Amino acid sequence: MEEPAIEEGDHNRDVEVAPALISVHPDHKFIVVSIGSDLRVFDLQGSCSVTLVDDSSGPPHKDSIRAIRFGAGGKLFVSAGDDKLVKIWNANSWHCITTVCSEKRVSAVAISKDGMFVCFADKFGVVWALDLDGFDENQVLVDKKGAPVLAHYCSIITSLEISLDGRFIISADRDFKIRVTVFPKKPLDGAHEIQSFCLGHTEFVSCLALVCTPDCPEGFLVSGSGDSTVRLWDITSGLLLDTCEVGSQAGLLESNGREEEHYSAVTNLCTTSDGTVVAVAIQSLQGIMLLNCNLSARSLSVAKVVSITGGCFIPTSLDTASSAEFLWMVTGVSTLHGLDSHSLARVRVISGFRRSNDHGPTVLQDEEIPGGEKLLEKLQGSVSIESKVFSAAAEAVKMAMCNLLIKKHYSADKRDFRKRTRNDKKIKQ
User: Fold this and answer.
1) What's the rounded Cα separation, in Å, for the pair 16 and 401?
2) pLDDT value at position 165?
3) Mean of all residue pLDDT scores within the chain
4) Whole-angstrom Cα distance, residue 424 to residue 390?
5) What pLDDT, on the 0 to 100 scale, is given for residue 8?
6) Which residues pair with 155 in a beta bridge?
7) Which of 132, 164, 169, 394 is at 20 to 30 A from 109, Cα to Cα?
């Protein structure tokens, strides 16, 4: 039987790119960038690149990395992705303390504040928990396995958070839902009590972030979506507190003279430690949007759009440290066909983004970035990247990123073909 023909246009729409990701140590000690299967770490305090120590043979990851983050006050770092591996690193020695095999490709990770549990979500909507009891900075954990905690029933989980007080695990998916589940005392036995649903988005939920106040230790939730909105939620009740139409505010309703669906999707966001500012990456915005978050008034409002000139810099990931005034951004993708360079990564930094006065925020030039040329050499692969490379890739990146979370509809023959050739079959133990 002949395989079903795939037209070139369909093939381009089906290409799954892996966006470049960035993660910042909470004390601003390390900056980590992932691009494709490559994990790059730079030590800001030592002003040097970091060599990862992994007892497994070959590179740490063999396929695209989809989730990275620090946790437990910066003691732990987790990376996971399409190779179905969840790797937990000691973020001081950068030694891999354990590797867990997932049954499916991993789409999101979260770490409890006390560092006792790592949770990860797979492409079939199942959230797993890993117990790190017995973790010692000088010891490798062996024979660790994840246990299923909850499920979104075949909907890809796009973002995962554990509330700051440890009471809830919050999961968002491609079907517009945000679920708040009570995080049990024994997570390995499953999480069966749903606290609330945060319902209101009309497209896929792409990202989540938590903000808190002293009188509300569990915090509030901020979410971004393909519907071009950022929303503020009460976690306990699931009540929608405010909605900010960031797409229309940024003027991103047109591209190339015509209206483009999903071109103003929110792709990533991060918040300051005091919860007063939310930085937002939007699909076609060459820069970022800053929102004022007034938790007393339970409101979100646009503070400023920070444009980034000199090349088509559309951030694919954002992060900041709790102890620094820098917002770190990366743009780039891997497995992008039609270009001489298989993977692209470009790092930029905004200083003073927490300030709303006339002196901030400021987009730093390369020579002003903490770590300087050494950092760029490590995280980008080279100090300078030709602007024409990103200019040529910009439209392809936008289209590929648009297709990353949108549900695809296939014919019966094509579905059968994808089932036979897929890379999500259960791993035999």
Assistant:
1) 8
2) 87
3) 84
4) 32
5) 38
6) none
7) 394
Give tens-digit pLDDT for 214-229: 777 778 999 999 999 9
Closest C-alpha among 129, 32, 33, 38 to residue 74: 32
User: Model pTM?
Assistant: 0.88
Q: Could you tell me if 246 and 289 are in contact, meaning their C-beta atoms sit under 8 angstroms apart?
A: yes
What gap in Å lies between CA 80 and CA 110, rounded to an integer? 11
Give CA separation, 311 vs 19, 61, 170, 308, in Å: 18, 30, 36, 8
Averaged pLDDT, 338-359: 74
What six digits make up the tokens of 157? 């989980």
Burial label, 84 (beta-carbon count in 10 A; 0-12, 13-18, 19+): buried
Are 316 and 336 in contact by the 8 Å Cβ rule? The answer is no
**Pairing mode, if any, of strands 299-307 and 194-198?**
unpaired
> Three-state SS string across the chain, please?
CCCCCCCHHHHHHHCCCEECEEEECCCCCEEEEEECCEEEEEECCCCEECCCECCCCCCCCCCCEEEEEEEHHHCEEEEEECCCEEEEEECCCCEEEEEEECCCCEEEEEECCCCCEEEEEECCCEEEEEECCCCCCCCCCCCCCCEEEEECCCCCEEEEEECCCCCEEEEEECCCCEEEEECCCCHHHCCCCEEEEECCCCCCEEEEEEEEECCEEEEEEEEEECCCEEEEEECCCCCEEEEEEHHHHCCCCEECCEECCCCCCEEEEEECCCCCEEEEEECCCCEEEEEEEECCCCEEEEEEEEECCCCCCCCCEEEECCCCCEEEEEECEECCCCCCCCCCCEEEEEECCCCCCCCCCEECCHHHCCCHHHHHHHHHCCCCCCHHHHHHHHHHHHHHHHHHHCCCCCCHHHHHHHHHHCCCCCCCC
Pairing mode, if any, of strands 95-101 and 205-213?
Answer: unpaired
Which pLDDT value is given to residue 261?
A: 46
Of 10-19, 33-42, 217-226, 333-342, which range is least confident? 10-19
pLDDT of residue 395: 63
Q: What is the pLDDT of residue 42?
A: 98
Residue from 156, 148, 107, 112 nearest 128 by CA = 148
pLDDT at residue 154 in the model = 78
